[in-house]
Amino acid sequence: MAELPNLPVCIRVQPAGLAIMNRGDKMDANWQRLVELLCRSQKLLIFTGAGISTASGIPDFRGPGGVWTRFRPVTWQEFLASHQARVAHWEYKLEGWTKFRDARPNAAHQAVVQLEQAGKVLLVVTQNIDGLHQMAGTSPEKLVELHGTNRWIECVRCGRRCAPEPVFEEFRQTRQPPRCFCGGWLKPATISFGQSLRPEDLEKAWEGARACDAVVALGSSLSVYPAADIPLMAARRGVPYAVINRGPTEHDGRPEVTLRLEGDVSVLFPETVRAALGPEAQTPPPTLH
Q1: What is the pLDDT of residues 11-40, one digit of tens each?
Q2: Is residue 249 in some structural domain?
């Protein structure tokens, strides 16, 4: 594990959340080091995965009871080639739609916004398709949704986007894959298996990795590539790399990782941000649209 450079201690606050989670001395020391990292950083790269949104009611796709335990994901090539595959894709999306529609940002999303408001965030790169970072108030120009978003429906032919609710209602009633005015197939504006990531999104994420002064991964198993390469690229430049997750990640034990904290991101990270920013940190209201 890489060493965190010696830093002046900017604050020492024991968060209530750590006591609740029954953490030992080593974890408490690592938490204090994370507070110090956030204190000094001015160009954070925040990388988030499904674990940041479970407290908002959105299940981890791979976890117990996740959608992928009941549906085999339809690949991009299958969606384009097969009517049956398009129906299966829309059935799978329809099952999860109400949870995505009704979800609201939790304290971890809001903590990311607090860091941005304090002038500390260079870029937020998320694997999530729930739109909760933007709803929490993360600036669109500082957000990369690598795997797309459920907030829009997109035509695979012309790229036209429209609101999701009427399209889901159409499919609910007809059970037929919806089409665009141009004749192309509609699908939620998410990246399917086998579909290329948008080059402009990937390049923006790489730029963030090249320019940041620290990287923090929140709620990700760091097992999906090329997304999981982004924090590693930053860390290989020598900047600190902190990983916070409940459960193992594929980056555990790697020499690039500076700090590894185990726990509930929605509890641990907001407490850390409050300690780093002090009492002036304000919880931003969600952006509803």
Answers
A1: 333 343 333 333 445 668 899 999 999 999
A2: yes
